[in-house]
Specification:
It contains 17 helices and 20 strands. The protein is an alpha/beta fold. Bound molecules: nicotinamide-adenine-dinucleotide. Keywords: Oxidoreductase.
């Protein structure tokens, strides 16, 4: 039995139904059946949210320097309220997002709130002013300084795979910076957005500063935010195709865009790795059914130990067995994929894999585990990097294993990708690992499983993985624009 309550919009300080009262069904990834309803925002609702956010930015003191401490206090109280709602957040993550109980303490809830705390902790390090010193020019003395000011109204468009984590990543940074926000969560996960509205007034957020809109149409609200001149910045996480469209459509109003667009990251296991068996086994992709933008979905293994790696993986998948796919099992960290579209897409790519490479483990849907979108942990070997399964982001529980000949070859293969989000190397020689790390085109990289993703570290990609950085002090500064002021004087 779930405790989900209908997801409502939040506009100008008011929890609301959609204008006209339309709703849509939220489908459970576990059962393929309706589990909740959500308000279906119309263009009228999105317009009201834009007006409210614009007014709150232009006509109140929210963004003023004098309110920095107040914003920190409000975001602290907001976090306390989220923490007090931990169980509810877990219910939402499990029932709406398809997270298995064991992932609640990972990125789905606990890490998201820990990241929020990290934002509060790094806030004192935000650079609000910079002194450029004095310079003589044209007979004048010039004292130069920049003031870093909140950029304005932010449209935050977020996905379904780690909805709380990504919502926090955008909303909290923008609020701390002094922006006003319109959060637009994915149609699959509206409740994880709606809760930001439900708790906003109690946290003391002034009217219009925080707004939440969502609807059945995945594009309607988002496109309105992207094309509207009154929205100053779009912060988007999702697919590369939509990210490109946002950049194109945002160009009309020369909007600032932050884009985080996923990846096909490489995990390189060198032949000198003293923990070779463990590190190859860790390449299995199961957490949240592999639906993570920074997952290391290409496992690169030195050719001299490739057969050994295959045997390790075979045993690892066998040992893992059926320890996944039970909604309330705290030991399970893998559930279904999010929706029917993803289910069909991932199964389609698995079929492509069967025609291109050798299936080592998994490879099937598992209707015996439930009526939802459950797909087995799957591993392909004898993969070459030009295959579709090595190039396309599958966004499911699928890893592909590719052999390499030497460090140069590993670097070449890792970089031979449209994406550049993350990756890692496992080795007995950290200096060798570091040389490889410095040559990989990616925004984050781990050596020997180092945790390169945390709320106090900047996260983002290069190439088709996106533009800009989220989290850490850099993540807050994404929402600031420097204004340079020079004070001239003669004499
Ligand atoms: P998507 O890019 O379509 O959706 C992401 C968000 O953008 C949602 O809120 C959606 O409603 C909104 N959106 C959709 N069309 C829009 C438009 N034209 N203008 C503005 N906003 C729009 O992603 P999806 O279809 O849900 O997933 C497809 C693929 O995207 C996945 O298979 C995966 O490869 C990738 N993905 C990546 C991430 C990531 O973390 N980078 C997250 C989810 C999905």
């Amino acid at each position: 039995m779930t405790t989900l309550t209908p997801a409502r919009l939040f506009i100008d300080g008011e929890l609301r139904d959609a204008a006209g009262g339309k709703t849509f069904d939220v489908i459970s990834p576990w059962t393929d059946a309706p589990i909740n309803t959500a308000a279906d925002a119309s263009a009228e609702d999105v317009e009201a949210a834009i007006v409210a956010a614009r007014r709150a930015f232009d006509c109140t003191d929210w963004s003023h320097d004098s309110n920095r401490q107040k914003r920190l206090e409000i975001c602290t109280k907001y976090l306390d309220l989220f923490k007090a709602n931990f169980d509810r957040l877990a219910e939402i993550a499990i029932n709406e997002g398809g997270c298995a109980r064991g992932s609640v303490n990972r990125e789905q809830v606990a890490m998201a709130l820990a990241g929020w705390q990290d934002y509060l902790d790094v806030f004192p390090r935000v650079e609000w002013e910079r002194d450029y010193g004095t310079r003589e020019a044209w007979g004048m003395k010039n004292v130069r300084k920049s003031y870093h000011e909140p950029i304005g109204v932010v449209g935050a468009i977020t996905p379904w795979n780690a909805p709380l984590y990504v919502n926090v990543g955008k909303v909290v940074a923008a609020l701390l910076a002094g922006c006003t926000v319109i959060l637009k969560p994915a149609p699959d996960t509206p409740s994880m957005g709606a809760i930001f509205g439900e708790l906003a007034n109690e946290a003391g957020i002034p009217k219009g500063v925080m707004n939440v809109v969502f609807g059945a149409d995945p594009a309607l609200a988002g496109e309105m935010l992207v094309t509207d001149k009154r929205v100053d910045l779009i912060s988007f996480t999702g697919s590369t195709a939509v990210g490109k469209r946002i950049m194109q459509q945002g160009a009309e109003s020369l909007k600032r865009v932050f884009l985080e667009l996923g990846g096909k990251s490489a995990r390189i296991v060198l032949e000198d790795d003293p923990l070779f068996e463990r590190d190859v086994a860790m390449g299995m992709l199961t957490n949240h059914a592999g639906q993570g933008c920074a997952v290391q979905s290409r496992l690169l293994v030195h050719r001299s130990r490739y057969e050994e790696a295959k045997a390790i993986l075979k045993a690892t998948y066998e040992n893992f067995g059926d320890n996944w796919g039970e909604q309330e099992n705290p030991a399970h960290t893998m559930g279904p994929v999010v929706n029917r579209k993803q289910y069909e897409r991932v199964l389609g790519l698995i079929e492509v894999g069967k025609s291109e490479a050798t299936l080592l483990a998994g490879g099937k849907a598992r209707p015996d585990k439930g009526p939802g979108y459950l797909i087995e942990p799957t591993c392909f070997v004898d993969v070459t990097n030009d295959m579709r399964i090595a190039q396309e982001e599958i966004f499911g529980p699928v890893v592909v294993v590719i052999p390499f000949d030497d460090d140069e070859d590993a670097i070449r293969i890792a970089n031979d990708s449209a994406y550049g989000l993350s990756g890692g190397v496992c080795t007995g020689d950290v200096e060798r690992g570091l040389k490889i790390a410095r040559r990989i085109h990616a925004g984050t990289f781990s050596i020997n499983n180092g945790m390169c993703i945390a709320g106090d570290l900047p996260f983002g990609g290069v190439k088709a993985s996106g533009v800009g950085r989220e989290w850490g002090v850099e993540g807050i500064e994404e929402y600031l624009e420097p204004k340079l002021v020079a004070i001239g004087s003669f004499g």
